[in-house]
Amino acid sequence: MGGARGVGWVAAGLLLGAGACYCIYRLTRRRRRGDRGLVLRPSQSAEDLTDGSYDDVLNAEQLQKLLYLLESTEDPIIIEKALITLGNNAAFSVNQAIIRELGGIPIVGNKINHSNQSIKEKALNALNNLSVNVENQIKIKVQVLKLLLNLSENPAMTEGLLHAQVDASFLSLYDSHVAKEILLRVLTLFQNINNCLKIEGHLAVQPTFTEGSLFFLLYGEECAQKIRALVDHDDAEVKEKVVTIMPKI
């Protein structure tokens, strides 16, 4: 349960936050680098770019090589090093856009399902840095919601997810103006969790979830009102999903 709780908390934070570690990273990096400014080196092999001693900002060609390496290798050591390098470079606004345009967000997002906990953490950190860019946020939300949906389909993970402490702004994902792709996923998340609770028998007993948990948000009146309001949504798929969920709220 602890693992699911941790992943759920970080995932929810990514959905809602703007990457607080960005400022810390920039401050510590500036202190370490002194006043050298940003330096671009000539292109080199992708694995060389993951060398811990490599401390310069990568250009588009180098980032493309790094993303290809991340997508093609199964070596956990190389994957982790590549994610660290990408995460560091994603702290710079120019690279946040380049990584998105190179299709890097889904590549990084896929690693949050990796069995290696350290790789998961490095992938989440990279996504957190990428989320500073407004244009990246929808793509990142979709990736993180994919993780939450995978977890929500497993009854053994349900309790851990529902114990996760989540900011109340999570409910803004159920607003009618939210992108259809995200709306369908958060509605499915509610549906999956509800189904798992029935399987586990939690709906028949007094829940032990604390205030501020995902359980209190999803099963509170505000969430119920938001879901009911979506029955008038312009999109037919969203309406259909809401009609399916309505008897359960």
Average predicted confidence as pLDDT: 78
The strand count comes to 0
Task: Give the biggest sheet.
Answer: none
Number of helical elements: 14
In short:
It is built from 14 helices and no strands. By secondary structure, the protein is mainly α.
Task: Furnish the topology, listing elements before pairings.
Elements lengths: L1 H15 L4 H13 L12 H4 L10 H13 L3 H14 L3 H9 L2 H6 L7 H14 L3 H19 L2 H9 L16 H21 L13 H5 L2 H9 L6 H10 L4
Helix pairs in contact: 1-9, 1-10, 4-5, 5-8, 9-11, 10-11, 11-14
Describe the structure in your own words.
- It is found in: Endoplasmic reticulum membrane; Mitochondrion outer membrane.
- It comes from Callithrix jacchus.
- Interacts with the DNA-binding domain of p53/TP53.
- With about 250 residues, the chain is mainly α.
- It folds into 2 domains: about 55-130, Leucine-rich Repeat Variant (Alpha Horseshoe), CATH 1.25.10; about 135-249.
- It has 14 helices and no strands.
- Helix 10 crosses helix 11 (about 180-200).
- The radius of gyration is 20 Å and the shape is elongated.
- The relative contact order is 0.12.
Features of the shown structure:
65% helix, 2 domains, mainly alpha, 249 residues, ARM-like, Leucine-rich Repeat Variant
